[in-house]
Write a structure and sequence with these properties.
Layout lengths: L20 H7 L8 E5 L13 E6 L5 E6 L1
Parallel strand pairs: 1-2
Antiparallel strand pairs: 2-3
Length: 71
């Protein structure tokens, strides 16, 4: 997971070093690739329920990955 921190997650135009969702999934450990991925933008409201098959990807204002956790 540490190799993803600081990477930019993109949805449209890609620049060198940016990741799209399929690349993000490929960089996850094999046993986590089937997990649901929830992308959380800065200031976005989310539910607080815990799910052991969900990966939370928290982004900063520039869409850089700052935290990845399970829940």
């Amino acid at each position: 997971r540490n190799n993803l921190i600081g990477k930019t997650l993109i949805t449209d135009k890609k620049q060198k070093g940016d990741l799209d969702m399929s690349q993000l999934i490929e960089l996850l450990p094999a046993h986590m690739r089937s997990f649901h991925i929830r992308v959380i933008g800065e200031g976005m409201a989310v539910t607080l329920d815990f799910r052991d098959n969900r990966i939370n990807v928290s982004l900063d204002k520039k869409n850089r990955i700052k935290i990845i956790n399970i829940g």
